[in-house]
């Protein structure tokens, strides 16, 4: 029995080690290559050796070029502004919609909620052109509004909030309402303070959706003034060459930001997701 358990533990450890290598080694190669000159990027790939992951000629040329020549300072500011505005406004809008679905009764409620569920099951590519036509008619193409507003309402985030709100005691909320508190006060003073884990989870989801968005910013923007990071990364591939060192440097920065955001909040993210089971 003990031998079987040890064998199982060893296989479990080996499987995790293999998965970790498959995930981390490409990231390590990209990170190391961001500190190499362009001519040195693939020099040590074959044969495979320690030089593949440790630069022999260290240079910050790729990072300097990103901000000095390619204007990545403005691009990062654009991305941060669009992303964090989406998170802040999106959490408010989606939580209010979820609160209505969870605690109010109105005609067509089940049908509307079904439509909400359908929205995050449909690939974005299906609605990209109709969405573009709508945003164009509103005059929001090539603007921050056009980048932010379509990403505010999110069916998955509404679903998470709604499942959490379903577990809140209805008698508590009704008692506060009977005592004279408005529904706005109940939402801001009682509901949202109790919803910290799911609010953080929802904010992280909105953050990742917007931070990693590529197709919509490509469609909705035309000028460099509103370019975001995912679109800017496509500029490294030209007709005559690919600037691998700069691409790897940009990838390192793009990955680093979500990691720095997720790590301190992972406890709340897990609590928010596990605390919103499917209950009716």
UniProtKB/TrEMBL annotation:
InterPro entries: MetI-like (IPR000515), MetI-like_sf (IPR035906). Keywords: Cell membrane, Membrane, Transmembrane, Transmembrane helix, Transport. It is found in: Cell membrane. Belongs to the binding-protein-dependent transport system permease family. Residues 76-266 form the ABC transmembrane type-1 domain. Its main location: membrane. The chain crosses the membrane at residues 12-32, 75-99, 111-132, 144-161, 198-219, 243-263. The keyword Transmembrane applies. This is Carbohydrate ABC transporter permease. GO terms for biological process: transmembrane transport. One of its GO terms (cellular component) is plasma membrane. It is a multi-pass membrane protein.
């Amino acid at each position: 029995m003990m031998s079987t358990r040890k064998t199982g533990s060893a296989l479990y450890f080996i499987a995790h080690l293999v998965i970790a290598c498959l995930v981390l080694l490409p990231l390590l190669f990209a990170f190391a290559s961001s500190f190499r000159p362009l001519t040195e990027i693939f020099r040590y790939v074959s044969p495979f050796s320690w030089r593949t992951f440790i630069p022999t000629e260290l240079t910050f040329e790729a990072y300097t070029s990103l901000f000095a020549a390619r204007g990545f300072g403005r691009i990062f500011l654009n991305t941060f502004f669009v992303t964090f505005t989406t998170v802040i406004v999106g959490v408010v809008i989606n939580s209010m919609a979820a609160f209505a679905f969870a605690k109010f009764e109105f005609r067509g409620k089940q049908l509307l909620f079904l439509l909400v569920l359908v929205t995050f099951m449909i690939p974005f590519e299906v609605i990209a052109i109709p969405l573009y036509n709508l945003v164009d008619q509103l005059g929001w193409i090539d603007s921050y509004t056009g980048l932010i507003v379509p990403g505010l309402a999110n069916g998955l985030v509404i679903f998470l909030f709604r499942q959490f709100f379903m577990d809140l005691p209805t008698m508590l909320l009704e008692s506060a309402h009977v005592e004279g508190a408005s529904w706005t006060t109940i939402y801001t003073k009682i509901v949202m303070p109790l919803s910290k884990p799911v609010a953080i989870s929802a904010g992280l989801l909105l953050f990742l959706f917007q931070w990693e968005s590529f197709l919509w910013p490509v469609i909705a923007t035309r000028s460099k003034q509103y370019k975001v990071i995912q679109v800017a990364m496509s500029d490294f591939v030209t007709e005559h060459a690919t600037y691998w060192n700069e691409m790897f440097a940009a990838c390192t920065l793009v990955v680093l930001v979500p990691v720095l955001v997720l790590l301190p909040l992972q406890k709340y993210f897990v609590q928010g997701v596990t605390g919103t089971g499917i209950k009716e």
